[in-house]
TrEMBL record:
This is Xylulose-5-phosphate phosphoketolase. Residues 596-799 form the Xylulose 5-phosphate/Fructose 6-phosphate phosphoketolase C-terminal domain. Pfam families: XFP, XFP_C, XFP_N. Transmembrane segments: none annotated. One of its GO terms (molecular function) is magnesium ion binding. Coiled coil: none annotated. Its cofactor is thiamine diphosphate. Keywords: Lyase, Thiamine pyrophosphate. Residues 17-376 form the Xylulose 5-phosphate/Fructose 6-phosphate phosphoketolase N-terminal domain. Signal peptide: none annotated. One of its GO terms (biological process) is carbohydrate metabolic process. InterPro entries: THDP-binding, Transketo_C/PFOR_II, Xul5P/Fru6P_PKetolase, Xul5P/Fru6P_PKetolase_C, Xul5P/Fru6P_PKetolase_CS, Xul5P/Fru6P_PKetolase_N, Xul5P/Fru6P_PKetolase_ThDP_BS. Belongs to the XFP family.
Amino acid sequence: MTDVRQPGSQDSDGHYSDADLESDLRWWAAANYLTVAQIYLQDNTLLREPLRPEHIKPRLLGHWGTSPGLSMIYALLNRLIRRTDTDCLYVTGPGHGGPALVAATYLEGTYSEVYPGVSRDAAGIQRLCRQFSTPGGIPSHVSVQTPGSIHEGGELGYALAHAAGAAFDHPNLLVACVIGDGEAETGPLSASWKLPAFLNPERDGAVVPILHVNGAKIAGPTVYGRSSDADVEAFLGGQGWAPVVVSGDDPRQVFPALHRALTDAHTTTADLRREARAGRRSTAKWPAIVLRTPKGWTGPHTVDGVLVEGTHRAHQVPLSGVRTDEAHLRQLEEWMRSYRPDELFDSSGALVPDLVRLAPQGDKRMGSSPYANGGRVRADLPVPPLEKYALPIGKPGTTHHETTRVLGELLRDLYAATTTPDGGGYFRLFCPDETSSNRLGAVFEVTDRCWQLPVTDYDDGLSARGRVMEVLSEHLCEGWLEGYLLSGRHGLFASYEAFAMVSVSMLIQHTKWLQHAVDLPWRAPVASLNVLLTSTCWRNDHNGFSHQGPGMIDAVVPLAPDVVRVWLPPDSNTLLSIADHCLRSTDHVNLIVVDKQPHLQYLTLAEAHAHCAAGASVWEWAGTESSAGAEPDVVLAAAGDVPTQEILAAAQLLREHTPELVTRVVNVVDLMGLLTPTEHPHGFDARTFLDLFTADTHVVFAFHGYSRAVHELLHGRPAPDRFHVRGFSEQGTTTTPFDMVVLNRMSRYHLALAALRRTRREPAGATELADFCLRQLERHGEYVVAHLEDMPEVREWTWS
């Protein structure tokens, strides 16, 4: 039975004839046939002879259950594109439907253009099938290797966020986003339904969510599958959508119903955008479709007397014993022949001409859409000259400045430079309600926060035309940015350091995508994913232990070395230099970790450029080896802003109390440089590493994050056990800045004591300095409790 409910009436231009239906059903049969063939067959892929066990793959991998629905949607979107000449992007949340999307892009011709070896004939179909989920072939998901994809869908929850990111600032794009009812149970997807509060029809494209309710996950029912239509409609309506329900198990009824729903959705979105661009704000809601069809539709109804179609048993491979069970083999052959492949593919194995004509032409094909290969439409980002924002530096370490504020000024001017006359653009900042808190508020001098809901007189910087994306969901910020980048634009995700961990799995998935994309020549480079972590573990002055966690560094360090970069700028000018590099880069994930609070400033812009280009350098002005003319007795190293201040303060204590001790101070800004060149392209070569750290001198290393990260990076370096790393050790609370470093044993006094223990020789004054450091730590403990602030000599310390 088919049930269709939607507002409005059928667009007269969208007439769907019986002949149209017959053509689409045949194309759908071809897509379903190739989907099954990819899962099962390694030979005899067009069934030109009876099916035998040796034609079956030894390992049956892939997912059938969601695929027929995905192929039906693809067929009807093809028809919509041909009729309206719409640019359409297809985002597939049920990534397990990989074989369906591979089949669709093969049938439209894109796949063979991208991979000429998979030709449009019998030999090409055999190669198409043999490569699926096999060694040396392609993955089972809608992966980076699949033309037309910006979303793999292997890790569920991000489809609608990616679709939204792709729609932002692409005013003529229609994004059809299929959401599996299992995926719809995830937290990120639940948050993503709030998109109408942020999608501006005046300058953005349209997103049409298609909630594909086939009722089951891998082992049981879904919440939406067992919910009533009324409840699902009420939920979506409350999120700002106008839902339409299309349901049924008879293709001859469901196809016309879904065609009508897609046609009306296109008409509604076009009207919304046309009204907004004429200066009139429509009260209509964005359309959404709820599509209920059986899981494993058109596949085996029962297997061994057990119901399969419409249940969780259709999720993966509904007939699993076909190599050893003759009944299963015969049932598979009957299933595949039910699609009549001899009527779909000619004697050479090519798709018959009347079905070839159903595909759109050129880049209108969804597999060829430049929006799914965003590097094709990416424009260079006009990063302004940095001299405008650079801080003047006289003597290093003597002035304080909020480190990230200069970056806010740079981002402000990037917004101004990239805003188009229609109010759109190609750069956006994504941040969970923390833009001003993170000292990036200068952007509000040229734009507002994006907000499509009502605005009151008491709001600050909210408007429909605003292009700063603030939403209290790290998942949405990360997902929106990923979709924005993969469809050809530029951006930055800024977050409190501890809570960026909420979205770290998404960042890992994006890294995996880029790792494989660089091996595909047809994938044009996209702008890098830039993540700014501020309000760091050391300086969350308003907050406590819950806000203190540098774990994202540990999460990204093991990832693809050709993709991942970790930057730890010690001051504003190095942050500017790093931001300039990262914003111009492509196909990387750049993690920038720097605090927003006032910090000492050290390097001029020219010095910062040289320092960042090198990745690390000796700060001769901070050590004593140049004046001593000898090799250092101990090396003091730092990576991160707070560690840099503490290591410099320790160096000053050693200089004052043990003047004959020879010290070297090293600052590391590119963390991945600690790896060897064979492990990372930024790895310091052997000569550079020795010039920084010597061959055998002990190194006391103050580090922003967990100390184990540095120890792991140093594997393979000369005598790595001589590195003694102090970092965050899971000690924290709401307390003073200096008490945080004391709690984690990374204070200047702890570092000086460590240096005295590790130096080549015991200099005069060492005992006295050690006693002084211990007394100071004891005094600190008493002072901070009594006065609720740090000791004056710490609070007011500068380099001298």
